[in-house]
UniProtKB/TrEMBL annotation:
Belongs to the AHA1 family. Signal peptide: none annotated. It comes from Hanseniaspora guilliermondii. Residues 13-143 form the Activator of Hsp90 ATPase AHSA1-like N-terminal domain. GO terms for molecular function: ATPase activator activity; protein-folding chaperone binding. This is Related to Hsp90 co-chaperone HCH1. GO terms for biological process: protein folding. PANTHER family: HEAT SHOCK PROTEIN 90 HSP90 CO-CHAPERONE AHA-1, HSP90 CO-CHAPERONE HCH1. One of its GO terms (cellular component) is cytosol. SMART domains: Aha1_N.
Length: 147
C-alpha cells in the first residue's frame, strides 16, 4: 500500500500489532539455545498485547511500540534422562525507546542447574534476539508508508 503524500510531509501511521504477532510467532517459536548439558527453547507465544506502529513525517520513518510479551519455554537435558522442564518468560514493558527492560523468568519448576543456565545464559541470548525486533519492524514497513 502506497499512500499519496507529496514529499512525505504529512504524518502517516501504520498499525503493526498484527505483523508483530506473526513476527514473534515466526522468529521465536522455536528460539533455541544450545548449552553443553541442555537444549533450551521457546515453545509458545502465550501473550502479546499493547501497541506497535510505524510512522512517517517529514520524510523520517520512526516506530513506537509498547508491548507486553509472554512466552513459554522448555529445558530438555541432553542425556534425555529427565522429563522436559517448563518455564515462562514475561516482558511487561517492551518499549521502542528502551533496551534495558525487565525480563521476568518464572523458573520455579526448573532444577537448580538448569535454572542457573536459563537465568544467566539463555536470558542474554533471548534479549539479543528480542532487540532485533525494532530494526526488522522499521525495515519491513518503511517503504509502505513513504511515497
Amino acid at each position: 500500500m502506497v499512500v499519496v503524500n507529496p514529499k512525505n510531509w504529512h504524518w502517516v501511521e501504520k498499525n503493526t500489532l498484527g505483523w508483530s504477532k506473526t513476527y514473534f510467532q515466526d522468529k521465536f517459536i522455536p528460539l533455541r539455545y544450545d548449552h553443553d548439558d541442555y537444549n533450551i527453547e521457546v515453545i509458545e507465544l502465550d501473550q502479546i498485547s499493547g501497541d506497535s506502529n510505524v510512522s512517517q513525517r517529514k520524510g523520517k520513518v520512526i516506530c513506537y511500540f509498547d508491548l507486553k510479551l509472554q512466552f513459554k519455554g522448555q529445558v530438555t537435558s541432553k542425556d534425555n534422562i529427565a522429563e522436559p522442564q517448563n518455564f515462562t518468560v514475561t516482558i511487561p514493558e517492551f518499549m521502542h525507546d528502551d533496551d534495558q527492560f525487565l525480563i521476568q523468568l518464572d523458573t520455579s519448576s526448573l532444577q537448580p542447574d538448569s535454572k542457573n543456565v536459563v537465568s544467566n545464559e539463555f536470558k542474554k541470548y533471548f534479549l539479543n534476539s528480542l532487540l532485533k525486533y525494532q530494526v526488522d519492524l522499521i525495515e519491513t514497513h518503511s517503504a509502505e508508508i513513504q511515497e
